[in-house]
Amino acid sequence: MAQTLFEKIWDRHVVRALPGGAALLYIDRHLVHEVTSPQAFEGLRLATRRVRRPELTIATMDHNVPTDNRLVIQDPISKAQIDALSANCREFGIQLYDLQSDQQGIVHIIGPELGLTLPGTTIVCGDSHTSTHGAFGTLAFGIGTSEVEHVLATQCLRQTRPKTFQVEFTGRVRPPMTAKDMILKLIGTIGTAGGTGYVLEYAGEAVRALSMEARMTMCNMSIEAGARAGMIAPDDTTIQYLASGNRPFAPAGQAFEEAAAFWRALPSDAEAAYDRTLTLDAAQIAPQVTWGTNPGMVMDVTGRVPAPDEVPGYSRKDVEQALAYMGLTPGTPLTSLPLDVVFIGSCTNARIEDLRAAAKMFQGRTVAKGVQVLVVPGSQSVRRQAEAEGLDRLFREAGCDWRQSGCSMCLGMNPDQLTPGQRCASTSNRNFEGRQGKGGRTHLVSPEMAAAAAIAGHFVDIRTWSGR
Amino acid sequence: MDAFTTHRGLLVPLDRANVDTDQIIPKQFLKSIARTGFGQHLFHDWRYQPDGSPNPEFELNAPRYRGASILVTRNNFGCGSSREHAVWAIQQAGFTAVIAPRAERGAAVIPAFADIFRNNSVKNGLVTVELSDAEVEELLQLIGRFPGLEATVDLEHQRVTIHLPEEVSFHFEIAPAVKDHLIRGLDEIGLTLQHEAEIGAFEARHHTQAKVSDTF
Question: What is the pTM (predicted TM-score) of this model?
Answer without folding.
Answer: 0.97
